[in-house]
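Any chance you'd type out a single protein's sequence alongside its tokenized fold?
>
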Amino acid sequence: MDAGAGTDTEVAEAYRQLELVNRRLAGYRATLGPLERHAVGRPASILDVAGGDGGFAERLVERLGMHGAPATAWVLDLGRVSTTIAARRAPAHGRIMAVRGDARHLPFPDRSIDLVHTAAFFHHLGVEDAGRVLSEMCRVSRRVVLVNDLVRSWVAVGSIWILSRLVSKNRLIRHDGPLSVMKAFRPGELLSLARAAGPEAAGYRWGLVRTFPYRMTLVGARIGVPAPRGAPDG
């Protein structure tokens, strides 16, 4: 959380409310669209970096399963409360595991995970740290990297400021929402970050997908790795 504060109860409640935000304001859709284009068709391992309470990991596993591609997901996060919630989610699904760790130094070997994903995390980072995290994600992935985040826009800042006060009394949500949009990258900046992220990122073909209203997903497909069976061409 950008506020850097909050009781355990407030943090847990904030994650419950973010679930609704991701369902209603295209957070999940911004990940699932590119996922179906690049990762369906065969069993997969997933790493969700800064994965919070495991909500995205759960949907990634479910969506791949719908396409006959059983998946296993690791949720990596630094937060004590978030990893505790993710660990509680895991037994119900059997294919989700929670790991506490630093996104700048991922505790996984090179090319050990099929799909490495993160959502609503890069806006918490400066350019240098964002480049370092992206390089680590590229190092660990053997197929696809997805970075789902907000788009910086003053219209979005104003909209989120109003919406957060209409729908939530949680002080973390009210603080985090507008500040997150103000700190986010613009599409060209995020794409430039990928192209400048060093030798690990150079092994990927990069593209950017916009999702209405204010979401974008940076998509990296490892060069030389065939597209999964059943995925659209291009």
Notes: Residues 186 and 196 are 15 Å apart (CA to CA). The beta strands are 44-49, 71-77, 96-100, 113-119, 141-150, 204-211, 215-222.
